[in-house]
């Protein structure tokens, strides 16, 4: 079995590298792929994650490695990694040398459906594979009004580039309820509601209406939802999310170092009661929702590794699962053109985070329930170590 785990760790290392470095392709290579019908396409529901924008060019959402790890596709014309195509098969390459064959991700059936008001469901909920949906109710952030956008974030630039062309806008509770019901009928089992800041921070009423619509359309009281919110001034509203039926809650602190937080996230600092209120919010959320039922995230690569690890240790001791996914200097963000640390830096960090989670008793099920994406590198480390990937069953059979 350790041979299989070794192979999986080699694939995982390549996943980290291709996320950080991106993948260089001539978009014409995808002319052989039934994108947008059989295979899942990228949709710009909130952020452009490719290294440059590509209006009018469709890319696949991602692909699977030979032993079953899901890789996101991140386009970068400067990368040494690429894809090749030969006799009906695509391959991951490095400097044109073939590394392994890849299989693109299946498109969920609900992507072909529309809500009762005629909106494509693919524009309401992004499918992140493994039964997980991400619903970005507002694909704009009100922080732009005051020039206080987080410096790594490109939500408003992505909106300006794609929203009109791709028909993506504000989502209404009924649209979300109908879409979640359709997705859950074909195996969906977890969702996150998130979005940019809305004017006057009116998010709580909206989240409660969304929870009601999901319950009405799915018939589920516990729909395994995560409410992703900014730190509120009045912490008692957190109880309302729990009462509304969200199983988990998320508040992304983004940066652990207090001074760097102020510089990188001026709006989160000035509009939400300051850094200390973000920490207090997370601690209170863990009291209301329970240990392992609260998530945070740090944008990894903007502060020293030691600072990130201190934050993750501290929050874990309070019952909060804080991820630190690799920063990609997204196009349209203020940090466009900067560089993330090397992939090896990130891979080492991911392994240390997984060790902290283990030490604090967090399970894969808790990671799955509270994180927006089901396939982060830390999830993969758990699935390799706990032998949860389908490839382990095939081996045992
Ligand atoms: S709060 Fe910051 S990270 Fe969140 S959407 Fe607004 S600018 Fe982006």
Whole-number total of structural domains: 2
Order of helices and strands: HEEEEEEEHHEHEHEHHHEHEHHHH
Cα gyration radius (Å) = 20 Å
Specify the overall morphology.
globular
* CATH topology descriptor of the largest domain: TIM Barrel
Unreliable segments of 5+ consecutive residues: none
Major sheet: order of its strands?
6-7-8-9-10-11-12
The number of helical segments is 13
CATH architecture of the largest domain: Alpha-Beta Barrel
Largest sheet: 7 strands, mixed
Helix and strand composition category: alpha/beta
Distance between the termini: 13 Å
Q: What's the CATH C level of the largest domain?
A: Alpha Beta
Q: Care to describe what's here?
A:
By secondary structure, the chain is an alpha/beta fold. The protein folds into two domains: 2-104, no CATH class; 109-393, Alpha-Beta Barrel (TIM Barrel), CATH 3.20.20. It has helices spanning 2-21, 155-166, 173-185, 203-218, 237-244, 258-264, 266-271, 274-289, 305-317, 343-359, 364-370, 377-385, 390-396; strands at residues 62-64, 70-72, 81-86, 89-94, 97-104, 126-127, 132-138, 190-195, 225-228, 248-250, 294-297, 320-323. Strands 6-7-8-9-10-11-12 form a seven-stranded mixed β-sheet, with helices on both faces. The radius of gyration is 20 Å and the shape is globular. Iron/sulfur cluster (SF4) binds at residues 141, 143, 149-150, 153, 155, 196-197, 267-268.
């Amino acid at each position: 079995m350790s041979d299989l785990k070794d192979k999986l760790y080699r694939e995982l290392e390549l996943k980290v590298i291709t996320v950080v470095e991106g993948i260089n392709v001539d978009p014409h290579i995808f002319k052989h792929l039934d994108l947008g019908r059989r295979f899942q396409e990228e949709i710009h529901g909130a952020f452009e994650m490719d290294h440059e924008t590509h209006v009018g060019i469709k890319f696949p959402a991602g692909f699977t490695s030979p032993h079953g790890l899901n890789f996101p596709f991140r386009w970068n014309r400067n990368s040494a990694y690429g894809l090749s195509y030969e006799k009906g098969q695509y391959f991951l390459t490095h400097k044109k040398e073939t590394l392994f064959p890849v299989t693109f991700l299946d498109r969920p059936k609900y992507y072909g459906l529309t809500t009762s008001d005629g909106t494509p469901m693919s524009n309401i909920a992004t499918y992140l594979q493994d039964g997980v949906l991400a619903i970005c109710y507002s694909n704009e952030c009100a922080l732009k009004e005051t020039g206080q956008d987080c410096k790594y974030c490109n939500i408003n630039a992505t909106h300006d580039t794609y929203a009109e062309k791709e028909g993506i806008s504000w989502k209404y509770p009924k649209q979300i309820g109908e879409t979640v019901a359709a997705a859950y009928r074909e195996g969906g089992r977890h969702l996150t509601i998130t979005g940019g800041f809305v004017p006057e921070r009116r998010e709580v009423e909206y989240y409660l209406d969304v929870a009601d619509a999901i319950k009405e359309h799915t018939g589920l009281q516990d729909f395994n939802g995560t409410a992703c919110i900014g730190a509120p001034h009045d912490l008692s509203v957190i109880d309302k999310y729990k009462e509304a039926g969200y199983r988990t809650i998320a508040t992304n602190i983004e940066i652990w170092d207090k001074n760097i937080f102020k510089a990188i996230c001026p709006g989160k600092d000035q509009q939400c009661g300051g850094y200390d209120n973000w920490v207090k919010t997370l601690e209170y959320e863990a009291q209301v929702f329970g240990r392992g039922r609260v998530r945070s995230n740090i944008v990894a690569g903007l502060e020293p590794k030691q600072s990130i690890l201190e934050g993750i240790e501290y929050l874990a001791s309070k019952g909060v699962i804080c991820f630190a996914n690799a920063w990609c200097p997204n196009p349209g963000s203020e940090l466009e053109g900067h560089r993330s640390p090397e992939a090896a830096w990130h891979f080492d960090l991911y392994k240390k985070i997984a060790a902290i989670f283990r030490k604090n008793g967090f399970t894969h099920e808790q990671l799955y329930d509270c994180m927006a994406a089901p396939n982060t590198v830390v999830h993969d480390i758990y699935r390799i170590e706990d032998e949860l990937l389908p490839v382990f069953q095939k081996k045992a059979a």
